[in-house]
Amino acid sequence: MNVALTALTPRGPALAALLARERCHDTGALIFVGACGIAVRAIAPYVRDKFTDPAVVCVDEAGRYAVPLLSGHVGGANELARRVAALTGGAAAIGTATDVNGLLAIDCWAVERAGFVTDLEVACAGSAAMIVGARLRIARVGGLACAAGRPA
Are the CB atoms for 42 and 20 separated by under 8 Å? Predict the structure, then answer.
């Protein structure tokens, strides 16, 4: 994964905006060092969708918290945040519902099997169903489809 690193110091917002414009779609990941708000504002004009956006992680300048901001599952920002936190001795602040509940997200499941999700609404519904304890039936038909079953 190619990673672009941006440090957000007092002159950082202008640099962050420039790097986000130049790097948001030609690299696999962006790591911002500084405030999450500045990182969000820098990438906002270039955000498209979870299937094409790069992984974006923001880490505070002390290295205490690595926060995946964009493309946590498909783009790998959650895993990148864990790696950054391991390097800095900090913690990865991952808030995606499947991760918080110790579940494997459908889009991650697909990527692990060299597949992909073709219907975002179905994937989101499937993940939501898993969070409340449903079992899923997953089938490949041109892509990945899933259907929620009964609660476990």
Answer: yes
- The pTM for the full model equals 0.72
| C-alpha gyration radius of the chain | 17
- Looking up tokens 């259907």 gives 147
Q: Which pair of tokens denotes residue 123?
A: 């994937």
Alpha carbons 8 and 45: distance in angstroms, whole number: 18
pLDDT in tens, 94-107: 998 888 888 888 77
Nearest to 19 by CA among 88, 35, 3: 3
The answer to whether the beta carbons of residues 151 and 134 sit under 8 Å apart is yes
In SS3 terms, the chain reads as CCEEEEECCCCHHHHHHHHHHHHCCCCCEEEEECCHHHHHHHHHHHCCCCCCCCEEEEECCCCCEEEEEECCCCCCHHHHHHHHHHHHCCEECCCCHHHHCCCCCHHHHHHHCCCCCCCHHHHHHHHHHHHCCEEEEEEECCCEEEEEEEEC
